[in-house]
From TrEMBL, chain B:
Name recorded for this polypeptide: DUF2812 domain-containing protein
Stretches that traverse the bilayer: 111-136, 142-162, 305-324, 344-369
Keywords in alphabetical order: Membrane, Transmembrane, Transmembrane helix
Highest taxon of source: Bacteria
InterPro entries hit by this protein: DUF2812 (IPR021359)
Amino acid sequence: MIIEQIIKNYSPMTETAFYILLSLSKPRHGYGIIKHVEEVTNNRLKLGSGTIYGTLTKMERDGIITMYADEKRKKIYEITDDGKTLMRHEMKRLNELYVNVAKYKGAFE
Amino acid sequence: MTIKRWRPLWSYRVEETEQWLAEMASDGLQLSNIQRFSRFFQFEKVASIETTYQIQYGKSAQLAKTLQNNGWQEVVKVKHWQIVKNDHPTVSLFPSRDGVLRRISSHQDKWSGFAIISALILLIIFIPFCFMLFMLDFEDLAPIWWMIPISIVILAVSNIRLSTFLKRQLQALEKTYFNTTIDQVQATGKTFRKWKNTWAYFPKIIERWLMKMAAQGNRLVKVDGNFFIFEEGQNEKVSYVCEMRKRVEPSYFDMHKEAGWKLKHKTTQHFGSFVIWAKQYKEGETIPTLGQDITEERKQTFRTYLKRSASLIFLTVLNLIHLLLRIKDYKFGGDIGDKTVLGILAIVAIVVLLSISISILINISYTYFFKERKLH
């Protein structure tokens, strides 16, 4: 899938997809992703293994992530270059949101 | 110097092909290209080397950076196929098998369908063909009359053989790469069994029933065919999740097992795989779920219901036609002889079969529409 198509399909990203990709700042096992998401969201977001499995399968099919296996045949997930481009695009969008929140939050207090 | 080797069905014999490529490299023949349609592998004569090969498949199949840093490199890429190799003497990380397994599994589904049609064709064509050979003088027949049935028979037999070959390949790969071991529970107390019709399997109903049994202190030990074996004990908080999946991949089992779910049961039927997962939780905690896609889950249950109903409707219509033809041929008021008794017995048998299929159809339709759907 070409990168423009990937961005069109995935952005704006769901919170689940965003945090899964964010966890792949380094390659991780499936359960490692679940634990990392819990850690960075202070246990607010607890992802079910079914959610992770479904999202990762779709992302792998679209070439955003790739996977390999260790000696014990456990799966390790890694973000691809296309996945990194998608994350940069999404982070830019979220940054814009953040700037606007900071700028206008006073009006809603 | 270029050398070509023909290797039919290589994409189904993946592990064998990888081993063969390694042996070729050890003999000084390095893979340089694959002709996808003619199934020819092209090799270049080089120095002998010990190499590990692996075949990857997928629309987006690509080599992870970590794998590249660990010595893996692409040798050939043809359409969705990627052949990679690693010249290091010890390899600890390997490309994923999921794509290859997914492809073989999907092909096996299709070929098993063709195999069933082929078997029916064999029954329809082969038996009359044998009769024809016995009844008629073979020499009087124009070649076309025996060539067509023979070609169809050869085609049908090839379909059936390919389907069984694929099934064997898939089973071997699954055995190696699927962590489908059932998490066994040793029963120390009194056990008892409950019968459930797993053919008419409704995931949400079974889930609720298992959780109710656990709350009453009945721990699920194992599922043996249609029997659920429980052990009497103390009340437990256990969340059960029953899933009906069209296709299961290696990472499906790994993911749930890593997250602490115990695999209680897995069975593969023609309509898909049924899986039962269990996870204990404490008082006050939220009931653990897999967090699967609810819409997809609903669709899968409905699809399975449709397939079952369609097969029952087919059986009912077949029995009904049979019954009508029998009744039409039956002469009332005739002599009561052996023929009449046999005729009556045949009609009774058809009526019994008809009632069974209609009652099952009503039962599963009622259960699906009035019980299962409400639980989703």
